[in-house]
Fold each of these.
Amino acid sequence: MKRIENVFTIVKRLCEEQSNTEGIVTGVSTEQVAIRLGIQRSNASCDLNALVKAGRLEKIEGKPVLYQSIDSSQSEDEDQMERSALDAIIGADKSLKNAVKQAKAAVRYPPLGLHTLLLGETGVGKSMFAETIFRYAQEIGKLQADAPFIAFNCADYAHNPQLLLAQLFGAKKGSYTGADRDRVGLVEKANGGILFLDEVHRLSPEGQEMLFYLIDKGLFRSMGEVESYRKVEVLIICATTENVDSSLLKTFTRRIPMIIKLPVIRERTISERWELIKSFFKQEVQCLNVPISVSPNALKAFLLYDCPNNIGQLKSDIKLSCARAFLDYVGSKDEIIKVSSEELPEYILKGFVKYKEHREDLDTIGLTEDIIFQVSHGKKIQIKYRDTVSIYEVLEQKIKSLRTKGMSEKNIQLIMGLDIDTYIKQYMAKFRKDNLEALYKIVDRKVVDVTQKFLRFASNKIGKQFNDKILFGMSIHISSTLERIREGKEISNPHLTEIQKSYSKEFSAAVHFGVLLKETFGIQIPLDEIGFITMFIVLDEYIGKEYHGRVGVVVAMHGTSTASSMAEVANRLLGEQHAIGYDMPLEKKTETALAEITQLVKERNEGQGVIMLVDMGSLVMFGHMIYENTSIPIKTIEMTSTPMVLEAVRKSLMRVPLDDIYYAVTNLSPYIGRIYSNPPEISNRLKNDVIVVACITGKGTAIKLKTMIESLLTAQERRVDIIPMEISSMKDFDAKLTKIKKEKNLIAVVSSIRPKDSVVHYISPKQLLEGKLDILLANVFCDGKETLPCNISLDVDEEQNISEGKTVFSLDRLSFMQKIISEHVSIDSEKFMESFRLFYLELARNGFFISEDASIGLILHLACAIEKLLTGEVIAPSNSCELIDMEIDKEIYVIVEAALQSIEENLRIKLPISEYCNIVKLIHYTY
């Protein structure tokens, strides 16, 4: 068989595959033919053009040029002609299957068909469905080709019943005020055809009687007419948005035998909605007679957003988006109208929140590239856009577009990184593992050989095995690169600096490839191209891998809009609603914020974990707390800036694993985008100042103390991060403090247990709650020097108590705690403190004493626990019982259980066993 016949056969076969899988023939590119047949691209182009001249193929202009077989396009049209109007309606074999079957039965029923009532919300397509029934009746010969279809909305004249009846049934001159002539009604005009009455429930009672008489007898008479009735043969289709069970409609359902309910758009499948969207864009192309290009994200938004007014709203929103894009088209030199997600209104963009729910459906549709709707030879044709080989044209067009929109060069570089990564992945994925001989027919053998040599070198240097597809993809890319350099065209990589920094090992290997190419072809390879080569070998490990989800991105910060603004900027710049922002007002309770952020993390987890980007304070510790409660993998990054959020979202959209995203973001400078208003003040403390609040009885008490400290520091305008911590053992306590000291500037520890590290500034809970924190921290903050005193000291007795660690004290010294509880915890503070006194005395009678500071911590902890139980909250599970030996501690446990009865009975609650174990553990620390 001649080569040209092989070309024709492969085009025909690919077109048939497209028709079977996609339902439409999009066409075949020259490159696809060359790769499938293993021939030179120039030979494929020559044969394709010869087949067009011979009238065997159709050529579709665009980028790239596409070809389709004449018979495939004709057969597609013939298939459309063979199907009836009702069968061709979108959803006829799915959500509208039953409605179509009912409509066919209504039309075919002898002698004239069955009158029909269409039910459905506003915008579901009742008018369109009625018109389709009319066309079907003409197709099967039930109505003549010139039969009338008369549509009337009863709501238009509902305010004037007489005029409404005159419109429907006609009127004699003088029958009502203003009737200066005889009027022919719509019923008479519809004789021999179909009369469609929309919003029929708006008919007056008199109008309903006249309509029912027409339905029952086929007779009517005009207003003012007193002679005999006139006969007409008309099929009536009524439509209403009312509930079929309403008393108003029951009168209609008794007279109209066929009731057809049309589904709302939310009940229709994604594939049906996709067909609707395509049909509406095709209608706009036919109206404007200009090709329309629609971005993947815009199409996804149209597929997913809520349409309260159903198909009618979807059609209107698509028309409006085209109108907006048309204004840009008129003022530019483009040859195509471009619709992108950036111009869509907010309520449409909100559809992205449903992406996770419908990901499989969207993947089936395959929206990865811009789609063009255009008119070709009088037919509407859909074409997948941008199947070009060259990465450079893609990037140049994207950069030009972003600059036109006034975007900064810095943000352009961040966005372009995603395009580079995505392009290379898509580019690599389309190659098969063909043999080398097939590749030699497309690309110069020397290019393939030198690429193969480089991949062996890189494999040894980097220590990784490359996907088989990389040889094909990289060889074709390098061939394009060499051609571009020879022609003197510029190569620009907007992400070069980051590539060098993030992938230094791979970049070094790519530099070696540049040397090989220069030695082989005598062409100097620019550094920008070295960056592209680097990304080929970096992204190779992701090609062919199946990731069932992406890493979630949660941005949480103090304030009323910081986090949500950062997330919005990243989402808008990268074209997808992926990051979620959580704004934490300063007055919000930490426990509430933790619960709300936990819920966000659960919602954003797609199975690959979540990266949390926070500013400071308790938010830094939330990730660990959430992981303990949910087991969702979480990485937390503090001191977050907008570029860091952009990078996290960008990597997540590439489906990069959690650990790799964490590494990439933390390698960004932590001071990107930050401007300090008073640099000298922080110049001697490059690390964050932190205070650790540690508690034996759990994080709840630590978080409550943290809130109190933050309020005081905020009033004094001091920048300090507070880290709440649970102590499981002294060894664990000291290890955590040592780690924090390495990473932060630890200025103080607030705890009922004094740490072993004598260098650490220690503050007892009693000193904190008695309002002496500002005195205790004065030595740290005075003049910015951490160790010099400021002539402020504690009472001698207080210092002695701290050093001796006294455990015996009068409960009267804790009377101030009642005020603290009443101000910070929503329980009866008087009843609680009295119950705690009985609890403490019971322990003392059995020879167990808890230190004053430990008692303060315990009071806070129990108060918080009781508040949760009284408000119906569940106390988070704890491992406290695993940290004690029940055989050894059984006696203490029994005493604690008995002592707690006074609190449980007076407050009418039942504490979980873990709280008993917490107190046993506390007694161990005291002794």
Note: The longest helix spans residues 310-330.
Amino acid sequence: MALRELDYQQKVLKRLDEYLQVLAHQKASTEAVVAALQLAARQTHNPALLQHAPDFASLTWNELRAAGKLPASRMQVDYSPRTDGTGQTVPNVVFKVPTGGGKTFLAVAALPRIFNQWLGRNTGFVLWVVPNEAIYTQTLRQLRDRQHPFRQMLDVMSGNRVQIMEKDTPLSATDVDSKLCIMLLMLQASNRQNQSTLKMFRDRGDVHGFAPPEGDQQAHARALAATPNLNVYDMADGAYHWPVVKDSLGNALRTIRPVVVVDEGQKATSELAYSTLYGFNPCFVLELTATPKDVAARGGRNPLVARPANVLVEVYGKDLDNAGMIKMPMNVTPLSGTDWRDTLAAALEKLHTLAQQAVSLQSNTGRYIRPILLVQVERTGAEQRDGQHIHALDAKEWLMNVGGLEEAEIAIKTAETNDLKEPENQNLLSPLNRVRAIITKQALQEGWDCPFAYVLCALAASQNMSAMTQLIGRILRQPHTEKTGIAALDESYVFTHHAKSGEVAEAIKKQLEQDGMGDLVQEIRLPDSGGGNSGDGGRNVRLIPRRSAFAHTEIYLPMVLHVADDGVRELDYENDILLALDWRGLDVATLVQEIPDNLQVAEQQMQRIVLTDDVEKPVVAELVGAVAESTAFDTVHAVRMISDIMAHPWWAFVLVEEFVNGLRQCGFSDEKLGRSAGILIARLRQWLAKQRNGMAENLFKEKVRRGGIQFRLRTDRHNWKMPLAEVTFEPKGAAQLANDNGVPVEKSLFSPLYVNEFNREESQVAVYLDGEKALQWWHRNAARSHYAIQG
């Protein structure tokens, strides 16, 4: 299934692009300063001058802050520098994304940007660190599945040269040079003091090409000089009397200098985790977390420098809700009765109601949803059924004998029993799956994912509130990450047994804050109980009608539709336009003519640091262009570098060959082509993007002319219809949106409208429109839930 790139995801990736652009500029400027300091240090025999070298990562952060491109909540927080195990600067950014916000997608989408814009290549090594086994298993499955969109994104980036690895997978330098290698690692496995991880630093027979030849003393010395934190054998126990680098996975990682992705970055802030991850000598660290953790300074015997999180961009719970990613509002029903069966009955009744709505949805749209009930019990062990506590088997028997569910529709997920592993239960989203209720205590931990879970029946809430709130996140994800348009199927439901309303609301509030969705606390709804225990923080949904003059007016707006033999549907720009472009008639000769004969490559564009045997000059900087093996133009690499623009590799290969042959006819030698490869590919990408946009525009207009794309009102159901009422969560009597004279607006289509539902810019526009005499009515279009077009 294709992925939609949502508004907030585009915002995150755009900010990353801006960061990488500034980072590359600051790095180039810093290298020039460092080169000058190195020269001065050698001439004056004063190595202390190198201490004044600027930190390009900090300079990048300061430039973004001055431009107002950091989150408002972090504008006053200074950048926290990061260095690897050799003392080199490591760029580090944090994406603050709520739980369920698609952190894996953002990480995958960030990789081609980091590799292309920062490292200048599309192959290499990624160390992907996850916090627990559930997320490890899920991520590994997604990245290995060639049909999964995440894997397909990586295949496009690397030209189908992806290798997904675990820590025990054989590793060679050839793989790292020619493929995009992604190794998954659990956080505890990367802990340097953990016994299982000490194996990472032991010699292995399946790690090749990273350590020098065994008996070459000078090669080992050069390797240690280049990477001082490599592990070596104990000379007292070895066959050699000089330091010998171990041929281990840990040393390979330190030599590779990988890009590191840290899922749930707030769990990797201990000194041990921090030193271990940065001890792998990463060239870039991307953290994703719902709740960034700022490490405070510490004095005493073990002092610690403050280490705040470098949050580049923040995503809020409301962003996810607007994008259709989560089921909100959350309806919480605390039942104070003594019989747990009453609570389970209420939850099951809600499940049946949702199931009826889902059947109606499928009959009208073909979209399949099977609502699932999660039941949290007090006991699960075979020897723990004592008649005093609510046991998993008690709940299962009631659901079958009284609730009317069949045994195949109930699954138990505990430490001892896991019905979800049965072949028929593994794909909970399949129409062939029959599971409608899952009974657990706390086995559905972070990483378990089923968007069909709608209702949580917490029978153990009064005994274990924290376990109940941990399950909240399991019912939040919206099926297919798209609202259904049926209110009941776009919300989530919690029923708690024998728990106080206020305590439940407070516990859920804290959990939402931990999941990065504290701004959605107002979306928790608690029913009025009639006894003053309604939960002051809850707000109920109400419908706002149209003004009487327009109450019965039918208002339709056209949609951008794709009309073909297979029917009428909304336009999919990527599939209907970009993938339909015909590149065969493209003449690259015009680009060849634009390339000047005296094309110059900036000398400071990229440098390589080389170790020598010269005692006086042990370290020298060489221009990459002067290295013989770098002076050949790599056609295959060029094809991969334009694959995001020109998706057809065979046409891309032909075009690159024509481009290179045209340059040769203009006098470009092989040496000049290789030396200028970077800038030539950049010019080719710019030209192709311009051609693609032009062809896409022409194809779009041609399809419009032939009727293949339509934007007009139709007599069938393919129009957008203005609703007759609008939803509000504001209480009656709340402050209304008013004009400059303090009078409520008079020309809005729906009335009344409340000031808390408008931001400053929206309210200013609304008040301006309301004052226009020629205007009959106006309406604020809500993102993602109201009218939208593309084209």
Note: Residues 747 and 774 are 11 Å apart (CA to CA).
Amino acid sequence: MHLHPLALWVALLCGTGMLPSVPPSQRLDPYVQRSWTSEEGLPQNAVIAIAQTEDGYLWAATQEGLVRFDGTSFKTFDRHNTPELKSSFITSLHVDGAGVLWIGTGGGGLTRYAEGTFRTYRTGDGLPHDIISELESDASGAVWAGTDQGLARIFHGEVTAFRPGEGLRGEIVTSLFAGEEGTLWVGTELGISVLKEGVWTAGPFAEQLPPGKVHSLLRDRAGRFWIGLHKGPLMRVEEGHVTSYGPAQGLMGERIHVLLEDRNGFLWAGTSGGLYRFSGERFEAMESVTSPVLSLFEDKEGSLWAGLDGKGLLHLRAARLQVYTTRQGLPTDNVLALHEDAQGHLWMGTYGGGVVRFQGDTRTGAWTTKQGLPSDNITTLVAAQDGTVWAGSMNRGLARIQGARILPDEATASLASDGILSLLASQDGRLWIGTLRRGLYCLEHGQLVHYGEAEGLADDTVYALKESQDGSLWVGTRGGLSHLREGQFIQDAATRALERVAIMALHEDAPGSLWVGTYSQGLHWMQGAQHFVFGTRQGLFNEVVFHILEDDAEVLWMSCNRGLFSVRKAELQAVAAGQAPRVTSTVYGKGEGLHTPEGNGGSQPGAWKARDGRLWFPTMSGAAVIDPRRIREGHNPLPPSVHVEEVWGDGSLLDTRGEIRMPPGSGRLELRYVGVSFVSPEKVTFKYRLDGFDTGWIEAGTRRSAFYTNLPPGEYRFHVKAANSHGVWSTDEASTLLVLEPHYHQTGWFRALLVLLLGSLGWGAHHLRIQKLRAHSAVLAERNRLARDMHDGLTQSLTGVMIQIDAALGYLAVAPRKTQEHLERARDWARQSLSETRRAIWDLRPSILSVSALAEDLKRSAALLTRPDQVQVEVHVAEDQPLMPDVGATLLRIGQEALTNAVRHGQPRHIWIDIQYEPPQVRLCLEDDGRGFEPSGPLCTGGGLGLTGMRERAEAHGGSLEIDSQPGQGTRLTAVVPLHPRHTGHPHEDRTHSNPSG
């Protein structure tokens, strides 16, 4: 729980009273611990051995299987899911120089694991026994396996056994240590044996050691041997001198299970009584570890791992920060205020425990209501220039501490019932007091001056105070920022920008920039008229900022409800200048040593930068102290190793060995990946990309899976990278190839077939449409032909009837005989019209004409148009041959039109008709001796003679029409039509182009 700034004064049920003054512990526990048991995924809670492979995974041996750990989850291998493992009881683990994991079992022999493949060695392969107790490898690459009946050497797959009686002292191998010079030290139930250059000896100090079982062997960097005995002390052998360590030297437990020297040179001992670290003279107990320690291991990142008997797996890492709590002498863990005086004393105000003072790690004073404090709930502290320490309380005003006494102060007596939130001792000796709902006060020369909203203060609840370099005062309130200069509140860019914003913290840096922490509205930067707001979108860890401190490297440190975080000021300025999109926030929580991530806020000064450079922050669980120099030295430069562990398609686990193929129709793809880092593994972040789908990297944050749905068939490659908790990205990415198989209708051959089919259907549809258009055109052409036939036949016949009737009317009174003749001719014309109409109807059905039939039709038409005594018509046919109906009809209509024109306009005496069958064409020639005409004259070009229609008829059937005429010299018309017409327009337009003239 933190002090919510807007509900700061909600009463908490907490007892008061002064805790007795006790000397603080001289040694802070510098390790952050976390443990895992069967509740978190271990198959069993006795961790017998620990190792780490080159891919970053941690391996643990238990009685119920081999466990692989990535920092967040476990995967168990046992004889049920891994047939190559002949026993689930794992007794020992070792990674050799080639990165191969060797697995000793309790009855199943020795198993080798490399590149995802297991291979097992048993007595049939040369092992002296199938119970493996210890494993080691030497500089040559050979692996040594201790068993219950001797020792085995495995080199290039060959097994060599060393049994008792061949120089080995004892038969049960309990410990192994390979020296760099090629010497192998072997501990057994009878003591130590040494193998060097193929020769066994008892070792250089055999006589100095008591007889008995040797549980552990280690030679440290200084060349000293450490030997753990079964029921004896830990022995150190240095230059022939033996020193014993037991309970008198702080080392508890009758059995020394394991020894380890870490990268910092500390010696660790895991015993039946717990975990101990050697300080040079004595062993110090890790007080939180009380279970027997069976195994110890240091990983690549420098973390220490302990396998406990019955308590699972324990992770220990040097804390990046320390926390002062009741263990170090605080009366209560809930710290609200921190302040360092001119003498270097650190003052702490607590909730429920009053005031406490430290000099270094030693508590030198404590004050509660028993010593005269008005309240044990202290919210703020400040030391004045005269050495007086002022303490503000939650609801009982101010207390004045001088030396060890609490003195009354009449000048501030009027504040006795007020809540004091902030205090500031300015350079000119004045004391500034910020209150809850009572505004701002200034104590000077025993006089108290009040500033409230009436005087221009933004709000009467004052959270923060900061004296500027120019001597003015910045005042952070619940309702905005105020700027007091020479007794007057002024309005400037900063105050206008922060109107109605709850101001929690104020910091002015050396260049004069003002950094403002707010409640839920981020971090604000003010420089003159410039203003920029940093929130989570700009990379700020949290938008609640309780306190702001700046270290010597120009890094801003801030506290919030979720922990502490830091941001380089240069990054903030780059974002404000538009030179970068985001800052990187480094977060410090439980993984770095905080007992709780919740900071306290709502009063100032709460956080403090001490003169030694350390930074102090108040939390619900103590005063957290950070040494930025140590933080930078403890930076983790090792990037995580990243792996794609599982691929799921539509809820089914896919085989990830090699190329991953997904069946057609797979709709949901899930890829689960890990970044192996054991330093705050929950803060490992990821980014991934799917080639063939994603256009760039996807920032996944701490999420460990990627999801895709409805991917089209094809080949994809998935890439993933990881960054550790300090922002170091992996240089090598993990990738996996995915092939999404298509349905048959999504294949290339099916698409090609579909294109071909659609093309065929399209061509067929087009062809059908052409046929329909041709048929439609044929209908139109037939209509036009009928129209022309009516014009050329019926119209001409009616014209003949009209001519005869006109003539009869002319002779009606004077020549009845001629009238009769003309009427008879009119009757004949009417009959011919009827016959032509019938012929047109008949032409709708296919028929075969001939040259002679064409000649007879033309002769009959001429007879109807002329009188034998006036015009002589001669018809000549050279050869009678059949004609296609269209050919005969075309020539007949041309001939009829020509005869009509000759009789009506030419007044000839003779007309000659000649039909010549000249394959592949037929020729019609019609000649008269009439008046003739000018072919280029208006009578011809205007179409009055029907010449255009005749020519179109001939040309529509692939033929031609020629006219030879001169005035006074008669007319010769020649029409040539192919026996098998080739249509020059639409195929069915052979009867459509005539424009009959009337």
Note: The first helix runs from residue 493 to 497.
Amino acid sequence: MASSLITSVRLLLVLLFLLVGVPLSAFASFSPLQHDSSSTSSSDASQVYIVYMGSVSEVSTLDMAVNSHINLLSSSLGKSQEAARRSLVASYHKSFSGFAAKLTQREAQAMKGNPSVVSVFKSQKKQLLTTRSWDFVGLTASSARSPTVESNLVIGVIDTGVWPENPMFNDTGYGPVSSTWKGECMLGDNFTIHNCNRKLIGAKYFKAGIEQYGPLDNTRDFISPRDNNGHGSHTASTILGSVVEGADLYGLAKGTARGAVPSARLAIYKVCWAYGCDDADILAAFDEALHDGVDFLSISLGSFFPVLYEEDSIAIGAFHAMQRGIVVSCAAGNSGNSMWAVNVAPWIITVAASSIDRQFYSPLTLGNNVTIKGTAINTFVMEDKWYPLIPAAEGTFDNSTDDLNFCDVGALDPKKVEGKIVFCEEGGFGGVDESVVEGGGKGLVYSVEEDSVAFAFLLSASLVGYAEGEQVYKYINTTSEPVAKLLPCEVSTKEEAPLLAYFSSRGPNIFTPSIMKPDISAPGVDILAAWSKNDSITEYPPNLDPRRPDYNIISGTSMATPHVTGAAAYVKSIRPHWGPSFIKSALMTTATPFDPSKDANKDLELGYGAGQINPTKATDPGLVYDAGYSDFVAFLCTHGYNSTTVALITGETNTYCPKETTTPAILNYPAIFGAFTLDLKGDWYTTSRILTNIGDPSNLTYTGKIDVPTGMEVTVEPMSLSFTSFNETKSYNISIRALGLGVGTTRVLSTALIWYNEIYSVRTPIVAYLVTF
């Protein structure tokens, strides 16, 4: 905004769009969705609130649930039955209990006092937070598979819907759907029963919550499970897309596309619309998905800020999913270092985004024959000749009041820009490519702080870093008639991968500092997967971008999350009897460590968690940290919930919290996380863990090994664990302190405890970090 103010707005837009996983160039054609701003409104104004009531105590029909919720509203608030009915927005009754209703602040406060209510919170909007990527993490086409088990797995995706005609959702070779499946395909705009098949076995949409902001516009949305945006099709196909040879984006990234578990079944739950993704609809999707019988849920959306567990629709739904043995993977968010990770409940697998060993380059050659290797998803080929190169400041209208370097929409004068390559600087309100196209420009050179992620543009373009931007600017200023060429896009190997994506939200978990978040990383940079034929690759409208391919290349933790869902499903297909805790532990303890010496990885486990997924290795981890349903119930007790509230959440009347005080650190998590303040960094942080033996052979001894960095001390007792039988458990105690925290710029120190023998290596991250919140 002033120059710094504008930069701040620009940053906010970048964060929002990366969370969605859409191209940077789409800024001008999309209005970013903010959280509901009604918190500033009068206490007499009605807003939609979620009234969460815990587990379902008894089976009920929708009519029974609606009548019960109307009676509760009427008796608690003194409303007539008719007034209560009018205020009711949605009822949840299949998998957990609760409802959404239009309430004033006073009424919401009154509902909180009802003994049958766990929590009451505003329903707000959440943001929508691969031919090569599976090979990169070791899950190749030749990896061991169990097709029969895989074909019985149902993956639920809560997102923007699906484009069912995409080749990656073809059901050739599939057998009949299991008789235990309870889902269905809802009909609607451009969506009939024939759009489902033996692969896409369920498709539902939810709009009662979002419609409280106004009716949906069917010129911007399909009022059906059909995907208007592309995001949902992209995430779903990453998990279980059928094998498609020759998949590419206009010749880029050409290869054989496939998901992690291409024989699995898909159930789509559409909750995201042009106006956003509402909490009330997200809870409705969870309620249906759990009842339908999904085995996994992949959720590439989340709040802009972390939300308390009891006020977070995703945390609530995921708890009840975990209760039923369903693995839930969620995006950590795309706010980089500026915000904390979201979706941090410990029963969720929280996913960071990392790079793969592939980079898309869009080279820029200056008239002095210096070539700069910029990045872009460049589907255009310019004529092989020199074009005049001008800075944006020389191409603006004479009376322009905009910052002359930013290329804001409407700022460029066609008389000055037509037929030229325009050099723009980061910092405006977006739409730089639209601005250059409007002015008749032939190409764009865009100087940005981070050029490690490629985006598609409306014309030939090259993203360059600040240092390279200075090089371009210097050439322009020292040359009487500067010229340049934008060369065709190149795809090359990036040897230093994996690197943490700059946009991936960092930890720690601000609600439970002793629980590591994010949990794990997965490919989320420049991922090719299925797309909606209703949307362009830049998400500009058809008059600006007519390109409508079957596939698109985008980035975000939205893209990383389905990789983890797919990895978890692959593990389940090989180990069908494993539950969520075994799968999560196996993925984390077998993850590939990052190289901490790389600048992109400087935040260590606060950025990338346990490391990058290694799906095949996770099928045989040797030992696991088992933290099941009862452990998470005990965890709730450590968070201040009393026995009555915990009983409501679990639906078990015999649930009691212990009288003695315990801490969340007792949760048997596959990582050791110590939060320190400057005045207490010399104190010892002590906890314990339990390992379960699932290795083969079962009679093995594991020896502990730690490479402790300077400034950190770690003790483990015992340092040897001997197992004699399958499912046998052994515990160890661990203490850490970190005098090196706060020295210079050091805010995090880490190492790993590795339990190893000649067959297995079980890696447990150990982290000490400085609390700054």
Note: The chain has a mean pLDDT of 89.
